[in-house]
Amino acid sequence: MNADPPPSPPPSGTVHWHTHDVVLHPDRVVKRFRRAEGCDPFVRERRALLLLGRHAPGIAPVLLDVRDPTGAAAPPTLVMSRLPGACLRGRPLGPRELTAWARAVRAVHTALPPAELARLPLRHGHQRDTVARVRAWCAAPPDRPLAPDVRRALRAGTDWLDRAGPGARRALPADVPAVFGAGDGNAANYLWDGRRVRVVDFEESGRSDRAYELAEIVEHVSAWQPHPFDTAAFLGRFALTPAESARLRECRTLHALMWLCLLAADDPAHPRNPPGSAARQARRLWRRLDDAP
């Protein structure tokens, strides 16, 4: 869920992320997890690849090898097939791409039998986690002045959070069905090969609900940076229930607030994002607050 754009994957070589390193080979990908992040990302991704390989083959990489040297200095490692295609982030998305993307998201959501899905833990970064993250940031904001428009939007967002109270639920709302969530809305995690979209990166995956997962996709910074896609057209490809539609509005507001916190924390001396990103996100949050329940 990084605020900055991902590195452009070369045909082969190593790509460094904050939680792992990825070594790209022509036919496979080797993902080494950093022990400082704990074992949870490794466990979640391994479980997701096994489950999707069993119940929805072809939508995600095939797990080829698992190296889990418990107690050793070597990092836990997953070896998986390399999928064809280029990531959706930063490219123009027309009706064909949006339809294929929605189809891929639905395939992940509906992959698991209900009994197997019910046994899974909630995905990392679900609603309560996000609310706690936002509240922690607001309790200790950067010790530098924020632009007035950013400061006003943050105040309005935290007022909404206090008033609306999202995150108070103990688990998923009873009136929305559970789905299997990939756990990261970054458009860079969806690969388009000219015909279909496949999904990578399941470090935060687990049991979730459709409204929360869709909100994470359309409010992720990759929805508008570096190039926007038609989020309304994308959401229009999902037949949401009235309860899911109401929850989607709440979840979009929460994600928009979280992204404003992340972008406002960007250090002007060492920026990770284009100039004006926080101000643009502040305007996005105002639009969500106008639509919030």
Radius of gyration, Cα only, in angstroms? 19 Å
- The end-to-end distance, rounded to whole angstroms, is 26 Å
SS-based class: alpha+beta
Order of helices and strands: EEEHEEEHHHHEEEEHHHH
Nearest-integer average pLDDT: 90
How does the major sheet shape up?
5 strands, antiparallel
Strand content: 5-15%
Overall outline: globular
Describe the structure.
The protein contains 9 helices and 10 strands. With about 290 residues, it is α+β, with helices and mostly antiparallel strands. The strands form 3 sheets. The protein has a 5-stranded antiparallel sheet with strand order 1-2-3-5-4, with helices on one face. The chain has a 3-stranded antiparallel sheet with strand order 6-8-9. The protein has a two-stranded antiparallel ribbon with strand order 7-10. Strand 2 and strand 3 form a beta hairpin. Helix 4 runs parallel beside helix 8, helix 5 packs antiparallel against helix 8 and helix 6 runs parallel beside helix 8. The N terminus is likely disordered.
